[in-house]
Amino acid sequence: MDGVVPEVYNRLSNPIFGAVTAMNRLVCCLILGSLVSGLTAQDKPTGPARWESEIQKFETAGRASAAATEAVMFYGSSSARLWNLEESFPGLPTVNRGFGGSRMDDAAYFYDRVVPSSKPRVVVLYEGDNDIAGGRTACQVLADFEALTTKHRVALPDSQLICLSIKYSPSRAKFRLEQEAANALLKARCARDSRLTYCDLATLLLNTNGEPDPKYFMKDMLHLNAEGYAVWSAALRPQLEPHLASPRP
To answer: Residues 164, 206: contact at Cβ < 8 Å?
Structure first.
């Protein structure tokens, strides 16, 4: 036994043995990390399911309050979610149902669960931004918009749907051509239906060179800051007021 302790000490002190031990530990850590990552990836919802908890909150809020009834509902991705509606549209009844990171197909998928129960007079939709950044084409955005409008015509035939243009942001400059194509398709589609309105807010944020002006964006150069939303709100309000002032058909 007396000879074992010095031998163990000598082995631990040996730089070669120490390097091997360290390498073994590193390999074990990498294997464990990959197993944990694999479990996390398997447990993480994908597709529309990733929004389920947020959609359930919208459903609960809709049942708990009648404030959304006859209001203007903002629906869509983070550009809708981050909009301070009370500050931007004083005197107008508004409700926010934006869920950040969503796409047009997500908005179409959850439409029936989120929008009709509140019977909004106007639905303001902002989608398409994340779609194109994620690799979807302008035609796919239009197809998903068509699916959403089909649901809207059935559920809320007397409510106006205002489709906001996809904004051009500095951080997503490489997607500009596809964004412009999608905006052109959405504009043409809305022109064919009096219950749909296309509202071009994207060009309001461009500088004299036709590029998105950084002064309207947060540090991430993707989301709007207060100045950007002020520009959007001033242009959008005149589109909303007539629908709120007139009685339902």
So the answer is: no
Question: What pLDDT digit, counting tens, does each position of 49-63 carry?
Answer: 899 999 999 998 877
Query: The sheet that has 72-76: what strands, in order across it?
Result: 94-98, 72-76, 122-126, 160-164, 196-199
- In three-state form (DSSP H/G/I as H, E/B as E, the rest C), the secondary structure along 10-68 is HHHHCHHHHHHHHHHHHHHHHHHHHHHHHHHHHHCCCHHHHHHHHHHHHHHHHHHCCCC
End-to-end CA distance of the chain: 97
This prediction has a pTM of 0.82
Torsion of CA 17, 22, 27, 30, to 10 degrees: 180
Q: How far apart are CA 81 and CA 142, in angstroms?
A: 22
Distance CA 98, CA 111 (A): 12
pLDDT in tens, 94-147: 999 999 999 999 999 999 999 998 899 999 999 999 999 999 999 999 999 999
User: What are the sequence ranges of the domains in the chain?
Assistant: 4-43, 48-241
The topology (CATH level 3) of 48-241 is Rossmann fold (3.40.50)
> What percentage of the chain has pLDDT greater than the value 70?
79
Token pair of 179, please?
A: 């964004």
- Integer CA distances (angstroms), 181 to 111, 134, 173, 184, in order: 24, 16, 14, 5
Alpha-carbon distance 125 to 81, whole Å? Answer: 11
Of all helices (H) and strands (E), which one includes residue 181?
Answer: helix 176-191
Burial of 140 (C-beta count, 10 Å sphere; 0-12/13-18/19+): middle
| HEC secondary structure over 69-107 | CCCEEEEECHHHHCCCHHHHCCCCCEEEEECCCCCHHHH
